[in-house]
Amino acid sequence: LSGKLSDVFDGLSKRGKLSEADVTEAMREVRLAMLDADVALPVVRDFVNKVRERAVGHEVLDSISPGQAVAKIVNDALIDALGGSGAVPLNLSATPPVPILMVGLQGSGKTTTSGKIALRLGLRERKRILLASLDVQRPAAQLQLQQLAERTGVGSLPIVPGQRPVEIAKRALDVGRREGYDVVILDTAGRLSIDEELMQEVRDVRDATHPVETLLVVDAMTGQDAVNTAQRFNEAVGITGVVMSRMDGDARGGAALSMRAVTGAPIKLVGTGEKLEALEEFYPERVAGRILGLGDIAGLVERASETLDQEEGERVAKKMLAGKFDLDDYASQIRQINKMGSISGILGMLPGMGKLKDKLGDKELDTSIFKKHQAIISSMTKAERKTPSIIKASRKKRIASGSGTTVQEVNKLLKQFDDMSTMMKRINKMGLSGMKQMLSG
Length: 441
Ligand code: GDP
Ligand code: MG
Hints:
Blueprint: H1 2-11, H2 20-36, H3 41-55, H4 66-81, E1 98-103, H5 110-124, E2 129-133, H6 141-152, E3 155-156, H7 165-178, E4 183-187, H8 196-209, E5 213-219, H9 224-237, E6 241-245, H10 254-263, E7 267-271, E8 279-281, H11 284-291, H12 297-321, H13 327-340, H14 344-347, H15 354-360, H16 368-378, H17 382-386, H18 393-403, H19 407-430, H20 432-440
Parallel strand pairs: 1-4, 1-5, 2-3, 2-4, 5-6, 6-7
Antiparallel strand pairs: 7-8
Helix pairs in contact: 1-2, 1-4, 2-3, 3-4, 4-11, 4-12, 5-6, 7-8, 9-10, 12-13, 13-16, 16-18, 18-19
Membrane topology: Peripheral membrane protein
Organism: Kozakia baliensis
Family: Belongs to the GTP-binding SRP family. SRP54 subfamily.
């Protein structure tokens, strides 16, 4: 199927604007590919219509083929529908202990995911984690979580037989507070199918603990059922994020697309195996590739993106050389970083960041700082982005409140930008060859 799809894309060979006929033909295939990937029909329809509007009349740049252009439009629209570029991190911004509530059907992977999150937060962010099982349905459930906690090296709530889920949850928060835990993960019981008793239990726990995150764990292999489950849970208890488990199987991830459309909640994490390390951030761009049939259209998109990124890079490099690099250009660089999900490739292109790159090696960076920078820049006026030197105290205040940051953070960004500009002036003196060295280093 996807082979056919790329044939259609490759068949679009005219230059200039994309015609209605080009796009309609390509969209028919996209529609089939999406249905094949388990995307719900209404979601597919809506998506295809939106993309058609976007694509017809779209100017095809000389540097890429029309097929690449449509593929890229489809891919970008998929990424948007999946929640935009980059991963959405867990929200832990509350007074500790921060409660995270895990919900979902039995067997979806709640307990395993609780352990995975505990391991990740403990290891990467050095948080003190307390795991608490509220599962009084299955006799061994609390024991299962306790053993998981031992293996992971995080805390677990002592088991008190006979307690109800709400009592256990309150006790978990008490212990969390008293013993200085940063995060308390509340692992609830599931049921084989959704019933009112389960929902009431979860609502009671929610109301008693006010979780900062209510994460729904769904099994990606169940396709459309996972979407229905998500809808029901969201209506009944309200969810803040989704974890899709078993993405290591051959599920193509179409459910992911519907998930966002149906609940409005972002997919935050993806389970990719039974091991406790097998948890990844959800990157819309990766799943988009999977939905379209990896290695095929994805190849077209990649080539188009490379070409466009290269053009963008050259455009920015020219502005740098002319000493005209502004905050809009910086924002454009950040977008590329977010798009790639990894920044070591781009960092080398940003003067002054080479050292940071060396320090990071090839690791994925916490991109939250860039998200912040993006927010700050988008709260600036056009004039401020072009000429940052006009940003004085009152403007800083306005920008900070507009972007949900602080004046200190605005200052930090401006300082960093200033350092970059200084670097660039130096590069200017080095001339073009120095610049090239810098870009390739
Ligand atoms: P719960 O009933 O929701 O708590 O589900 P469990 O966490 O007990 O998981 C049920 C089964 O699914 C276990 O055998 C897990 O090892 C397995 N499992 C959980 N997450 C994943 C995953 O991402 N990939 C795979 N392959 N198996 C998983
Ligand atoms: Mg469980």
